[in-house]
Amino acid sequence: MSEKALRRIPLERLMDLKVDYAFKQLFGSNQNKEITVVFLNAILKRTGRDIIKDISFSNIEIGGEYEDDKQSRLDLLVVTQADEWINIEIQFTNKFDMVNRTLYYWSRIYSKPMTKGKVYSQLTPVITINILNFDLINETDLFHSTYSLYEATVKHKLTNMIEIHFIEFPQLIRDWYAKKLDPWNDILARWLLLLGIVDHRKGKIYGDIYKELEAIALKDKQLAEAFNHWQNLSLSDDEYFAYEGRLKRIKDEEAVIIEAELRVKKALEELDKALEKGIEQGIEQGIEQGIEQGRLNRDEEIIQNSLEKNIDVKTIAEVTAHSIEYILEVKKKLNL
Length: 336
Fold this sequence. Notes:
The protein is an alpha+beta fold. It contains eleven helices and ten strands.
């Protein structure tokens, strides 16, 4: 296949494969099953006897996360020839609680077979792959992190029933420009960079990555097929219309989140200003009250000294600018 045959479309027309609709159209059809198998083997680092040879696609739904939720359709769910369930979730926008959401979806898939009459030994491994268009895990700078259940001290793996992957595209792109990736020799980097070429959130297209992968595709049959199907999807008016509709919905959801965050930020700023103003007013009021109290204490000393010297109440009232009644109250208070 020539380079000219690969390139049949302006890069600006290509779908962002990190949008769940585009990803599922490319990797979620029987027509493209072969490239999906290669993609999964790359992520799961399957080689030798453990390699995934065949998959079937499942469209099962799971219950919503909350009582009033509708059923949730998983982005892409496949079953391997070894009866492993693999769920791929594409997250274009950070909806937060990603770890908890992942565990929830994993648990629902894992427990799905436990209908009446089933036994625990019939449960099968569930693997979750999260493809994230944002940074999530601060404890590592890896763009691909994998989690299982291990004993805390000796790191013994308890079971192969749970395996969770997080792939963070901002870190992948940083590694690419830091020259840490070699897609010629690293199959995982090759396929993930394919998904990273178009970034509609930032309005960027990484032409240098496209050019590199285009050259590799001349020697990689599955990658060349992925390029071909990707371009066909992007050239289809119907598919592109559906893709743009999904992208608009994602951006609208993101705008709602951003607006809510701005409102919270504004409310907190207004609260801080109110508290600051209240503190300033409190300080001013306290100073005034302190001055007034100090003046009264001083006047009481003058009144006390005057009374002890048998100066009459009327004269003391004139000197201190207090009423005769106040002088009498102080006299009573001091038992004079």
